[in-house]
Amino acid sequence: MLNVILFGPPGAGKGTQSERLIEKYGLCHISTGDLFRWHTKNDTELGKRVKEIINSGQLVSDDITIAMLKHEVEKNPEANGFLFDGFPRTVDQAKALDALMESMNTSIHAVIELKVTEDEVRQRIAKRKQLENRADDASDKLDRRIGEYFNKTVHVLPFYEEQGRLSTVNGIGDIETIFADIDKTVSALEV
Known about the structure:
191 residues, alpha/beta, Rossmann fold, 9 helices, 55% helix, 14% strand
């Protein structure tokens, strides 16, 4: 079982690169953003709570996020592995994810950071806003999300770096080159 975390700020290209990793390695994609949007769209009880939090521009709490994630992992016991996108965002979440993986007799094998500047992120999201209508791309919410990432979320990276599981890939450039760099990291893993 191959388990990878794709890490980066909003607009870094996690969704785009996730699609390629899933296709090549047959991984089960778990995006907390997609999960939040699904629950919100389907107006589940959890979705109502998530919608309120996201609409205020805040991060969804660890207990809600971990419960949703655990449910998704348990739904897929025969998976070749998992690709986590947008999670973890805190060291506590990273520890909870490690515990979940350990309970399944596996672990996180690699954390791949898509390194993208804040200016690049803002340009990409401005383009995305023209194509998609995502509530979390509204400028006031976007400012908070970007601030959360660059001021708080990045602090989870040293947790993985200390364990030798962190690789950084330049997230600026053409999609294929970025994927080739990600793939080098993943294909070198001994799982």
